[in-house]
Write a structure and sequence with these properties.
The complex is a heterodimer. Helices cover 27% and strands 24% of the residues of chain A. In chain A, the strands form 5 sheets. In chain A, strands 1, 2, 3, 4, 5, 12, 13, 14, 15, 16, 17, 20 and 21 form a 13-stranded mixed beta sheet that branches. Chain A has a 4-stranded antiparallel beta sheet with strand order 8-9-11-10, with helices on one face. In chain A, strands 6-7 form a two-stranded antiparallel ribbon. By secondary structure, chain A is an alpha+beta fold. Chain A starts with 12 loop residues before the first strand and ends with a strand. In chain A, helix 1 crosses helix 10 (354-361), helix 8 (321-330) runs antiparallel to helix 12 (382-390) and helix 16 packs antiparallel against helix 17 (501-515). Among the domains of chain A are: 98-228, Dipeptide-binding Protein, domain 1; 304-523, Dipeptide-binding Protein, domain 3 (Roll), CATH 3.10.105. Chain B has 14 helices and no strands. Chain B has helices at residues 2-31, 36-40, 49-58, 65-77, 91-126, 131-145, 148-162, 175-209, 212-219, 224-252, 256-261, 267-276, 280-308, 310-315. The two termini of chain B are 13 Å apart. Classes of the chains: A alpha+beta, B mainly alpha. At the A-B interface, strand 2, helix 6 and helix 14 of A face helix 2, helix 3, helix 5, helix 7 and helix 12 of B.
């Protein structure tokens, strides 16, 4: 934990919240933690003005070597294999050790990694040219066969990997010479990002020999990343050391230690004490104390979580758009940003996480123009709520339950506030605190309350990821559907590239923001805590979940 | 011989209870809302019907409950507790990795507890109504009522951050380092335990101290050490041992809040994470271990009764 100059460094990163968890590389229900997970700083700052730092930003001191940093995460690194664990904290470790086929930059754009070039000659064909100078930690070269194997195991018929959900469109992965070809069953623009977020390159020979134990403490894996796994256990965390033989530019940090600290307050004290250098995904509700700590520099960037209120439109009284509109007027979304998230969230303008739209458009003015082109969500106004309710069949009000997941700190206070507002127009909302499991089960249970709170995470930069799911057939708690919308969603899902999704998204969001099966609430930011001896060069980003993050750590000048 | 027979009968009963407990937990978990397959796949937004079907088949989740239990039981009899649904790693490895940390914490805190609580309780019981007694009683109340998480943060702030005497978090590696790392967590855990055992000791001591045989011993000028150690403490020991055993068993099965606060990767943390993820194989294994520890301690306590009280030894065969 000392720099090769003099100073001592340690880093830490977190998790739960409840183990909270959010799958990074694919859309996930935010059932854990207060819902913060990665964020994009450079692009977020540029495109949404959401990026901020609570303290003066130090500048990097060049490439001064750093002997060791300690990073903390809130829940443990469950396995060193993406097929076995897909949660964000685990990914923080996997990205250190394993190269991906491509990498993702702060703006959410794809860049070469193990593939030095790639092409998308048809909407259903992707080809990757594998670089010839990459080697595994044992010195053997990374081959196209290894790369193809790394993907084939995800889509294998007997694969039960969570990450496989994002690979449903993949028909085959084959290697020929130095080229890997992926054929899709149908166009899927989100697949392009899977190469950067899910496609971790492992050595075929080692992996086959390890069998079911691959990713375990005894057989952690054989990768080609800049760091090899020196030690690993689920309980004690992991240590990574530079290999010294990396094909790319080596990070300045020689050793990375990842440890689990479930309690954010303990992590804060550990940072104050200097035992921890980096803490990822600080729960937003806990950031007040972090902001006050002189030893800690906080960075907040646009995150990937989109929170919303869901109403089952096939169940009275939510089958009436006037009722749903009234509910939107009753939500004091803006007023609760400070108390719920320490001000580190923005009022959502649609059901699509803002970072997906900003990453895809990648231009602030055009992003603003896009949002101007869709209907605005009704804002808090009791009188207008009363007015909307008066037009419905339940003008006098009604009674409904609202289950809230106690592991997501924002839900209960939000629901209580909504209940107080609703009471003024005759709507009685019974807020029910439930465990995460009960809450999750209720979302898909037709017998559960028709009123639910949701938190969904962006798995890729593509804005077409979420609407076909929550307005389609896979997971649609609102049960809202129309033939016209289904057609629009099909077109959106079939868009060949993420850029093509933007014009196709507009009609979908026009419908969503008018019919309001979901009331978009918040786009949460994501928080990074760093000891003041260090800086994250180039700015932190939500897409750090897909980056070899120690590459960005520098000594502060 | 009678005691051996007693222990044998208890061991048989233990096996039966473990079977019942494991089956009940299995049934209760099957009734819990949520689908482990959906959780494994990252939530309902990612769980396509095909993916759910594959996971459910892989873990026999579609088989009848009794069949699932039978599969599990057969494996357990071979000391194979299966693989975690959450991490897909062997359950036994997770337990093996975490139990030593929880056990070290439990034993450490228990030693602190016994060293402090019994003398305090004894002194308070003997000097009933004195300032010492009132102080012990009030202190016990405070210790019992103090929220563990708040106590943990307070101790970390004072002794780790301000004074720098102890580390903020972690379990340490190697014997000495582990003791060093576990000192603050053990004190945090011990404070509540001291309150319980000190009060129990005080109550038992008060009861025994007023007995005629104690009065006669003192009148006969039996040395104070003999009176308090051989007469009072020994006769007050039965309820104290009972509660002490349960306190240790509780600590051994995972002091969740202490583990969370000090980032100790013990069984408590593992259980909470597993319950949230409906990780049935891990929950089953920890539950079984918990039941085994509690039953074992109860047996040890009962055997200790015989050692302490000859009247019980005579009554065993009756």
């Amino acid at each position: 934990m000392t720099t090769s100059t003099t100073s001592t460094i340690r880093t830490v990163v977190r998790g739960p919240a409840l183990a909270c968890v959010v799958a990074a590389a694919s859309l996930v229900l935010a059932g854990c933690a207060s819902g913060s997970s990665g964020g994009d700083s450079t692009s977020a700052a540029a495109s949404t003005s959401a990026s901020a730092s609570s303290s003066s930003e130090p500048t990097p001191a060049g490439d001064t070597p750093i002997d060791s940093i300690t990073a903390a995460i809130q829940s443990p690194v469950l396995a060193m294999d993406i097929l076995k664990a897909n949660d964000v904290p685990t990914r923080r470790a996997l990205t250190i050790a394993y190269d991906r086929v491509l990498k993702i930059d702060n703006a959410g754009q794809l860049q070469p990694m193990i593939a030095e070039s790639w092409a998308n000659p048809t909407p259903t064909t992707f080809t990757y040219e594998i670089r010839s100078d990459a080697t595994f930690w044992d010195g053997t070269p990374v081959t196209a066969e290894d790369v193809a194997y790394s993907a084939a195991r995800i889509i294998a018929p007997d694969s039960t990997a969570a990450v496989a959900a994002g690979w449903g469109a993949v028909k085959s992965v084959t290697a020929s010479g130095s080229t890997v070809t992926v054929l899709l069953k149908q166009p899927d623009n989100t697949f392009a990002y899977r190469a950067a977020l899910d496609w971790f390159v492992v050595q075929k020979q080692y992996s086959e020999a390890a069998g079911a134990d691959l990713g375990s403490p005894t057989k952690p894996g054989m990768g080609s990343g800049p760091y090899k796994i020196t030690s690993y256990s689920v309980a004690d965390g992991a240590t990574f050391d530079l290999t010294g033989t990396y094909w790319g530019e080596e990070p300045t940090v020689k050793q990375v230690v990842i440890q689990t600290i479930p309690d954010p307050e303990t992590a804060r004290l550990a940072m104050v004490q200097g035992d921890v250098d980096v803490y990822f995904d600080v729960p937003l509700a806990a950031t007040r104390q972090y902001d006050k700590a002189e030893e800690i520099a906080m960075t907040y960037v646009t995150g990937g979580y989109n929170d919303m209120l869901s109403m089952r439109t096939t169940t009275a009284p939510f089958d009436d758009v006037n009722v749903r509109t009234a509910m939107a007027y009753l939500s004091d979304t803006a007023g609760l940003t400070q108390p719920l998230f320490n001000g580190r969230a923005t009022v959502a303008k649609s059901i699509v996480p803002a970072i997906q739209i900003s990453s895809t458009i990648n231009d602030q003015a055009k992003t603003d123009e896009f949002y101007a082109g869709i209907p605005a969500i009704p804002t808090f106004d009791i009188a207008k709520a009363k007015e909307a309710l008066a037009k419905s069949s339940v003008a006098g009000g009604f009674t409904v339950d609202l289950p809230v997941d106690t592991s997501q700190p924002w839900m209960s206070p939000y629901a209580q506030n909504l209940a107080q507002n609703a009471k003024q127009v005759g709507i009685i909302i019974n807020v029910k605190n439930v465990a995460a499991g009960d809450w999750g089960a209720g979302l898909t249970d037709p017998k559960a309350s028709p009123l639910q709170l949701l938190a969904l995470g962006a798995g890729t930069p593509s804005p077409s990821e979420l609407p076909p799911i929550i307005l389609g057939t896979i997971f649609n708690p609102s049960a809202y559907t129309t033939p016209a919308l289904t057609k629009q969603l099909d077109a959106l899902a079939a868009a060949p590239t993420a850029a093509d999704t933007i014009p196709l998204l507009t009609p979908v969001l026009n419908t969503a923001n008018t019919e309001l099966p979901y009331i978009p609430l918040y786009d949460e930011q994501t928080a990074l805590a760093m000891g003041k001896d260090y800086v994250w060069e180039g700015g932190y980003s939500y897409w750090a979940i897909g980056q070899t993050w120690p590459e960005y750590i520098r000594m502060a000048s | 011989m009678k005691i051996a027979s007693f222990v044998a009968r208890r061991l048989v009963a233990m096996v039966a209870i473990l079977l019942v407990v494991s089956f009940l937990v299995f049934c209760l978990l099957s009734l819990a809302p949520g689908d482990p397959a959906v959780i494994l796949l990252g939530g309902p937004s990612k769980a396509t019907p095909e993916a759910v079907a594959k996971v459910r088949a892989a873990y026999h989740l579609d088989d009848p409950l009794l069949a699932q239990y039978w599969y599990w039981l057969q494996d357990v009899l071979r000391f194979d507790f299966g693989r975690s649904i959450r991490s897909q790693l062997p359950v036994i490895d997770a337990i093996r990795e975490r139990f030593p940390i929880t056990a070290a914490l439990a034993v450490y805190s228990f030693i602190i507890t016994i060293v402090i609580a019994i003398p305090l309780g004894l002194a308070a019981g003997v000097r009933r109504g004195t300032r010492l007694d009132r102080t012990v009683t009030a202190g016990s109340l405070v210790g019992f009522a103090a929220p563990v998480f708040a106590l943990a943060v307070f101790l970390i702030y004072v002794f780790a951050v301000q004074f720098g005497w102890f580390p903020v978090y972690g379990a340490g590696k190697g014997a000495i380092d582990r003791i060093y790392h576990l000192t603050l967590p053990a004190i945090t855990l011990a404070i509540g335990q001291i309150a319980i055992i000190a009060r129990q000791t005080r109550a038992a001591t008060m009861d025994v101290a007023t007995q005629d045989y104690v009065t006669f011993a003192r009148v006969r000028a039996v040395p104070a050490r003999t009176v308090w150690g051989g007469y009072v403490l020994r006769n007050a020991a039965l309820p104290v041992i009972t509660i002490s055993g349960l306190v240790l068993a509780f600590a051994l099965t995972g002091a969740v809040l202490v583990e969370q606060s000090f980032a100790l990767p013990g069984l408590g943390t593992l259980l909470v994470d597993s319950v949230n993820a409906l990780d049935v194989p891990v929950i089953q294994a920890i539950t079984l271990l918990t039941a085994f520890v509690i039953l074992s301690f109860n047996l040890i306590i009962d055997v200790a009764y015989f050692a302490l009280d000859p009247r019980l030894r005579r009554g065993v065969g009756a």
